[in-house]
From TrEMBL:
Residues binding S-adenosyl-L-methionine: T61, D82, D108, S109, S125
Source species of the chain: Telmatocola sphagniphila
Name listed for the protein in its UniProt record: Demethylmenaquinone methyltransferase
EC class: transferase
Coiled-coil annotated spans: none
EC numbers for this chain: 2.1.1.163
One Pfam family per UniProt: Ubie_methyltran
Family: Belongs to the class I-like SAM-binding methyltransferase superfamily. MenG/UbiE family.
Gene3D superfamilies in the cross-refs: Vaccinia Virus protein VP39
Keywords attached to this entry: Menaquinone biosynthesis, Methyltransferase, S-adenosyl-L-methionine, Transferase
Catalysed reaction equations from the record: a 2-demethylmenaquinol + S-adenosyl-L-methionine = a menaquinol + S-adenosyl-L-homocysteine + H(+)
GO BP, one annotated term: menaquinone biosynthetic process
Function per UniProt: Methyltransferase required for the conversion of demethylmenaquinol (DMKH2) to menaquinol (MKH2).
């Protein structure tokens, strides 16, 4: 059952996120108590974009791309890519409502349709673990980033504090999946996939090692909200 639940083949990921697209924003903010918005703002402060362009992989409904658009002093070219067309439709609607000029493109993060050394900053938030081959996803992020540019990965992680970790694990495994499934009616059990995918994905120094192997230098990581999420930053 676990192996089936963690099936990350492209077609399954595309279908699963397409199904939950109507509920995606509401559930993200509701289940995280809106803390996810703070994490994205922190990312824009820690990894600012000056001249651009900026690429946001696995952009989903465009939250990080829009946060960057709202945080830049002067307009820069921002591109968001995602495997799921249904997510991108909602990203485009949100961008239009915010009068934000962002290019949203349907693309596989393992095979990005951009030349080498294109982007000043390349980001991914809560999406690296959903890529079929995350090593290839990281390699592509590095490939399309300019020399001297930054790669930022914002991802869920596992709190190290024993008490908090126990509370978090209970909520993540028992409460969140039931609420998410009840509202989204996902046939692919998307909100059971979420905690399962987080618990089996590397975090902390282990993910730093992955990023260094992909060719990044001076990789740092900063736990957020007691380690519920972590921001990783590396330089090409």
């Amino acid at each position: 059952m676990t192996q089936e639940l963690l099936d990350k083949r492209e077609e399954r990921i595309r279908r699963m996120f397409g199904e939950i697209a109507p509920w995606y924003d509401f559930l993200n903010h509701f289940l995280s108590l809106n803390i996810d918005k703070r994490w994205r703002r922190k990312t824009t402060r820690r990894v600012p974009v000056k001249e651009g362009p900026l690429l946001d992989l696995c952009t989903g409904t465009g939250d990080l791309a829009l946060t960057y658009r709202n945080s830049t002093v002067k307009p820069v070219h921002i591109v968001g890519t995602d495997l799921c067309a249904e997510m991108l439709v909602r990203a485009q609607v949100k961008a239009a409502k915010n009068r934000a000029n962002i290019d949203f493109i349907e693309a596989d993060s393992q095979h990005l349709p951009f030349p080498d050394n294109t982007f000043e900053v390349t980001t991914v938030s809560f999406g690296l673990r959903n890529i079929t081959d995350p090593h290839q996803g990281l390699a592509e992020m590095v490939r399309v980033t300019k020399p001297g540019g930054k790669v930022a990965v914002l991802e869920f992680s596992k709190p190290r504090n024993r008490l908090l970790g126990g509370i978090y694990s209970f909520y993540f495994r028992r409460i969140l999946p039931k609420i998410g499934q009840w509202l989204s009616k996902s046939r692919d059990n998307a909100y059971s996939y979420l905690p399962a995918s987080v618990l089996q994905f590397p975090d902390g120094k282990d993910l730093v090692a992955w990023m260094e192997k992909a060719g990044l230098k001076s990789v740092t990581f900063e736990p957020l909200t007691f380690g519920v999420a972590t921001l990783y930053i590396g330089q090409k």
